[in-house]
Write a structure and sequence with these properties.
Elements: E1 9-10, H1 12-19, H2 23-30, E2 37-40, E3 43-47, H3 48-61
Antiparallel strand pairs: 1-3, 2-3
Length: 62
């Protein structure tokens, strides 16, 4: 799947699919400092472009 094929706003479920991790670990990542989290009430989301930019920057740090 290409980046443009994902919805504009991603959930932990979609992050888990993209990264090949459990949903629990996806939620832990969403709670990391510096993660571009969007909170709507008790739900957590991330803008697709912000997520892929964050992921690219994580690659550069490692």
């Amino acid at each position: 799947m290409e980046k443009k094929d994902y919805p504009m706003v991603l959930t932990a479920e979609e992050l888990s699919q993209i990264l090949g991790i459990s949903k629990r670990v996806a939620y832990e990542i969403m709670d990391e400092k510096g993660f571009p989290l969007i909170r709507i009430r008790r739900s957590k989301y991330v803008n697709r472009e912000d997520f892929f930019n964050w992921l690219e920057n994580k690659k550069d740090v490692s």
